[in-house]
Amino acid sequence: MLMDISSEMIHALLPIYMVTVLGASVLSVGIIEGIAQATASIAKVFSGALSDRLGKRKLLTALGYGLAALTKPIFPLASTLDWLVGARFVDRIGKGIRSAPRDALIADITPAPLRGAAFGLRQALDTAGAFLGPLLAIGLMWLTASHFQTVFWIAVIPAFLSIGVLLLFVQEPNRPDSTPRTRTPLSRRELARLSSTYWWIIGIGSIFTLARFSEAFLILRAQSIGLAPMWAPAVLVVMALAFSFSAYPAGALSDRVSRVTVLSVGLALLLAADLTLAFVPGLEGLIVGVVLWGLHMGFTQGLFAALIADNAPAELRGTAFGMFHLLTGLALLLASIVAGALWDLVGYQGTFLTGAIFAAATLLGLLLLHQRLHQG
Fold first, then answer.
1. What is the largest CA-CA distance in the chain?
2. What integer pLDDT is reported at residue 338 of this predicted model?
């Protein structure tokens, strides 16, 4: 949560800062963001595999958060675009390094009957940072008369606090002597040890990601009904609030009932969100659609992580999470490209209807997964 507050305080203002202060083009901003996100997705696979080989998940998690924290002072100090590009690149490498080992560490230290609640809580706090950061940025910009550097310097504080919490309060459990070491986690032989159920989860997660393209399209939908540009970020705040408040209850519920059942509710919420955004006009339709979108995120994101933890061997959890992050990251990139093309060709209804079709396909996949888990 602390690192997300820091990152979102900066990222909420960075595109505007790059264009209006440093004179960058909008195209260059898009290229920089695309490269940064792709770098993070690739790094996640290798860091997860390395955490399996070393058996040191906290070390890699701390390295990832540390790299991200060290980049934060560069943003207020940078006087040219090159420095910002470098800082953004290293920040995303840090995110890529920490994500899979962190999720595997959560799985390692959480009792199996509480995994849904644990990943739901992580997702809730992560999302809390995602809306607190922009809100703090807006308030500080108002207080400082839009002085970007001051806001960027204040954002450094929660970043380093996050490192302190990790180093001082998170203890990595000792691996049981019976747990085998994985020397080459990304080899074909080791990947073959991941069960067919795990790969079903990966496939369903990828199809699901095709249904939930970038939240940037929610902002575009707000623009299409005439919402003023200054209020457009409020769409993401509303979505993040619904996401954050539903993630922990949904995760805890999945510990008591079938995880697939809770995921199915999340998919139904996404289907309802897509249809609402496609066909219900005006501000009311936008608000209902965005709230439903946030609720579907709360009912799904932590659940996929819990399912992976349930169905991957303990010594391959880092690799398992890394593969999931990579493939769903690529699916999200593809989904956003397709959504943008459909928007240009046939309008917003085509985009959200296509999302609804993929959501329905994911629901069918979940039914098959439920049968596999029941048979197992």
1. 62
2. 80
Task: Return the percent helix, strand and coil in the chain, to nearest 5.
Answer: 85, 0, 15
Q: What is the pLDDT of residues 146-195, one digit of tens each?
A: 788 898 899 999 999 999 999 999 888 876 655 566 667 777 777 778 88
DSSP state of 238: H
- Each residue of 19-37: pLDDT tens digit? 677 776 645 655 565 566 6
Nearest CA to 293 among 225, 251, 240, 342? 240
Res 13 pLDDT > 90: no
- DSSP label at 127? H
Both tokens of residue 231?
Answer: 């209020």
CA distances (Å), 322 to each of 51, 137, 182, 311, 326, in order? 10, 31, 15, 14, 6
Structure tokens, 201: 């989860």
Stated as kind and residue range, the H or E segment containing 20 is helix 14-20
Distance between CA atoms of residues 153 and 297, nearest Å: 31
CA angle 32–150–223, rounded 5-degree value: 50
Task: Outline where 110-232 has alpha helix (H).
Answer: 115-143, 148-169, 188-191, 196-211, 216-224
Contact in structure between 194 and 312 (CB atoms under 8 Å): yes
What is the distance between the alpha carbons of residues 93 and 98, in angstroms, rounded to a whole number?
9
